[in-house]
Amino acid sequence: MQIDDHQTKLMTAAGLNLIAQALTIYDADLRLVLCNAPFQQMFDLPKALVTPGASFQETITLLAQLGEYGDVDDVAHFVAERVEQARAFEAHYMERTRANGRTISVEGSPLPQGGWVTVYTDITRTKQQEALLRARSDALSGQVLAHAEELSATNRELAAMNTALEEAKRQLTLSEARTRLTTEMMPAHIAHVDANACYTYSNRRLASVMPGRRADLIGRHITEVLGKQAYDSIAPSLTQAFAGKPSVIEFTDEMSARRIRGAFTPDTNGGVYILSMDVTEETQNRVALQQTRRREIAAQVISGLAHDFSNLLTIILGLQSRLGRLDGQPAEAAPLIEGTLAAARRGGTLLSSIADMTGARTLRPTATHIPRLLEDLTLIARPTLPKGMTLSIDNQMGDTPVLLDSGLVQDGLLNLILNARDACGAAGAISLEVRQVHDTWIEWVLRDTGPGFSPSALEHGFDPFFTTKGAEGSGLGLPMVYDMVKSAGGDLRLGNTAHGAQVTMRLPYRPAVAATTGLVLLVEDADDLRALVRDMLMGLGHSVIEAASADEATALLADLPDIALILSDIQLVGEATGLDLAKRLPPDAPPLVLMTSLPPDDAQFLEAQTLAPVLRKPFEAADLTALIAPKEIAAQ
After folding, report:
1. Which residues sit opposite 629 in a β-bridge?
2. Interaxial angle between packed helices 406-424 and 477-487, expressed in degrees from 0 to 180 and rounded to the nearest 10
């Protein structure tokens, strides 16, 4: 059952009213925060002075006028002194006799945030008993009397200590609530396990980082929660943390196909604090950037060599051609000359392949329909297969448009199919299965009924110039597919089945933008560029509303519910960027496309790819429409 703030206040007030002592809490501005009914009854105060916000000064003035503090000659001076004492408040305990003859104790304790708590206790009966004890002191030993007085003072000190402890407990509870709220808002799983590897704390974010895990973690062993495969991946680092040394690890969670980074920090009691984050998209972008840099380095080395070798091959071709035209040559010279020419031409083809593999190729992802891509692939691949060979394709993706560089993907798949054809010989079967792995990958699995990969091919298949085809192979087919996959942030694996070879290609799953012709919110701070893009959108049949900053765009989104698409630059005037705008959008916001002139290895470009499709400047209308899948098609 949920209890609202009003009910909580009523229940708190009722509890305080049951206390025999009078209690008040004043804030740092000397205003009443809280008091109970015994306080009003003890001093017979009007309602105005027991209402939250009542002035401490007015209350003291009334009590002084009523004789609560005995004969006071100058009430104003007396009140001023009491107010100054209150502003420099210190913990204290005192006893005084009121005008009505009753004796009260006054215990005060300051609060950490300013102000104080005061407890008033009627000790008249206690004082009477003490006086009675003194009157009978002749019959009692001095030791018993001293003990009774000491016990009475101790009881009063304990009462004051209890008040301070209750306030400390309240502050601790408030701090714990703030800490839990902070951890719940973090996009990571924060947990603690004891020395037996059982959970003692969790911020309940494990299922969002590693889908498929249970929510009730407390008291369970980490193996039971994560599963054997994930536990085996982190076991060395966790053991290291149990030994007192912090550690960090990255591993792939097979259950969710996500890349996870875990940080393990030992505590002082033999347990371990665990921080887990989903770094799948970060890893995909990092892999793509590493492959691009490797290609750039290779291109720098090879470009110079290719230039010199091209010149040499040109000279060889020219000289051999002239030699073949000379008269009076022996009969056996012709085939030698032709062999030399063929070898030189083959060298030129290899140089072109190397240039293609290492040259600067920019990925151009577009809204791609997998069935259409596979149909085109089938039309190209089937005519290249022998009559005794079959090609079957199983598409489990449906017709949902995704962002892919369809040309490079088709080239890579065709290369794999041709490799499978060469391995099978004159007859056999090739199958291609396409499926989605959670919301992380598109997986393409190509299998054949050939002899499978040899151990050396499994180890060196992605190395340039490694081939099992002898003189017929260049050794550049699989490396080129590997380069394409890594450049897109994916993964390529070689393996064998019981019936032949298997190649598994994974590419990041990124749904395409689905939008209809309608109102487009264009966010661009450069006036001339905004005008050009506006004309481009209007030429495509869209209506356009413009904003020059992320804050202006946010305001327009709140006022206009009919926006069909948002097209925003990443770099904008003001503190907020296009990335900030993307993070502000609610789940039901219109589709977003980001545009930028930043290089692909820029940190903002890499982050943008994790938030929305990215359109690189300069671009034309065709580049924009290629990123957008019509909503009526995307919904099929």
Report:
1. 514
2. 150
